Amino acid sequence: MISRLRTALIYVVLGLGALVMVAPFLWMFTTSFRPVAEAFTLPPRWLPGLDSSLESYRRLLASDVPIGRFFWNSTVLATTVTLGYVATTTIAGYAFARLRFPFKNALFALLLVSLMVPIQTTLVPLFLLMRWLGLVDSQWSIIVPGLTGAFAPGMSGVFGIFLMRQFFLTLPKELFEAARVDNAGHFRTFWSIAVPLAGPQIAALSVIIFTMTWNDYFMPLIFLNSVDQMVLPVGIMSIRDPVGNSSATSEVIAAVSLSILPVLLVFLVAQRWIIDSFVRAGVKG
Amino acid sequence: MTSIANDAAAGWFSPQNRKETIAGLLFIAPALIGFAVFVAGPMAATVVLSLMKYDLFSNPSFVGLANFEAMLDDRRLWKVLGNTAFFAVFAVAGNVGLGVVLAVLLNRNMSKTVQYAYRAAYFFPSLVGLIFVAVIWQFLFQRDIGVINYYLGLVGIEPVRWLSSARNALWSVIILDIWKNVGFAMLIATAGLQSISKDYYDAARVDGSSSLRTFWQITLPLLSPTILFLLTMNTIGAFKVFESIVVLTNGGPGDASRSLVMYIYEQGFKSFNMGYASAISLLLLTITVIVTAIQFALSKRWAFYE
Questions:
Q1: Where are the strands (E) in chain A, listed by range?
Q2: Which helix (H) or strand (E) holds A95?
Q3: Lowest mean pLDDT among A130-134, A172-176, B136-140
Q4: H or E stretch covering A256
Q5: Which end of chain A has fewer beta carbons closer than 10 Å to its terminal beta carbon, N or C?
Q6: A271 touches chain B (CB under 8 A)
Q7: Per residue in B117-136, is it b (16+ CB within 10 Å) or e — as a string?
Q8: Which 119-158 residues of chain A touch chain B by CB within 8 A?
Q9: How confident is the model at residue A135 (pLDDT cuts 50, 70, 90)?
Q10: Minimum Cα–Cα distance from B22: chain A residue
Q11: A41 and A168 part of one domain
């Protein structure tokens, strides 16, 4: 009896906690659908009512804020960085796991050092380097480091290399020896044997890198300045007004809702898979 | 076997090894070049720049250790360093402590659907950009129109100045940080829990150990490598705190909630003291290296490995 009571209590406490986690999102989406004039009136609303309207969104689209442009920039940036980062780190991870070449362990240890070097500590030289390369205020300033697998926004390159290397190490040797007997080239072995088997792992890495790039504010803040180049986080910060002007703030709420929507949709569709792959990455990391 | 295996003794570029050596080097080349150009190079440049005075417009001039001497006398630097350490202590304790408790409470026999729903709810904020959620929380934290003060008012609590008072500003940032990141710590801790053998718990049950005692004597020691990992990752992350403060308080009031990275950004990209900003960056790097070294040393001694 007591243990049952205790279990029930745990469920209730966990449930209340879960409510706190979800509440800000509920408030945001509901507020974005309220008529602008009363969007912030108290008591707060947690679910859209009968008076729901698209006024906030309509105002946002009609304003001179190029929200569509921000959205497009974010999409292009996150997609390109993800493709490049995942390709480079997958093939490097494969080499570190499966091939023999000189200084392999020393080079891997060297790459691991980059885990200790947050981008915030190399900010000034990176900026000078990008300026010298003529890439400041161009998406390329963020895409190029991602393409080379040096780092994606917020994520060191060696994270992907490490994750993929650990995966390729778990594959049985025999798979690759058969390919060698067939005298398949190393790239063909990688492409037609290793990559298909690594599908779920590659997908998990892609989701992580895409979300991190989509969400990142720091790198775009430093490297992308003109309105044409801005991505969603920087764009939203540029239109944010001091709270009080309720019509403009409704537009901000609408813009934030639009920015979170893709992540929410992907999560709702694939939540079990995402949670499981994070748990798995955690086991290995 | 020997005909297939790569024979290192024959030399990396001998006829039977050459193809593999070249393939290996080619496969890692992009990552290695990227590392050299965008990580190692800038790292070395930070050290060089920290010895310079450079404002981006005139030529850099060598000033020796002047930037580091200036750091010692810079009261604002010590203030922001103190803020960052304060934030780090409470955010890390909250994230790791609550994360482990949540993981343990959710790692029991319950309906899989409920379990996934709870985990999803706790985890989802870690997937959403900090800027986006900080903008939402800025509304929730407002003194007069904020939702939090509204509910506090219902139980008779006077409106709290969450963001505009020097005493509360950092706590508000800490609350946001725990809300956002606790789910991630929970998932990593869950992964750690699932790698603990069931045998230990069976033995504990046979001994009639209470669940609280089982937690202290079995779960916690066996989870210590995971906890150490979480403490390290969270501490390194906490010392980089930036976005949430920019949105919530912009460092204010005064410097009451300004962080180290905000100060680096301000020195480098607003005041154009590129040399001084680089010197402070090295301080951040030193902190990161020390935290990692402590983890490395502790993981050999303190953490209990099976």
A1: 151-152, 155-156
A2: helix A67-98
A3: A172-176
A4: helix A246-284
A5: N
A6: yes
A7: ebbbbbbbbbbbbbbbbbbb
A8: 120-129, 144-145, 147-151, 156-158
A9: very high
A10: A101
A11: no
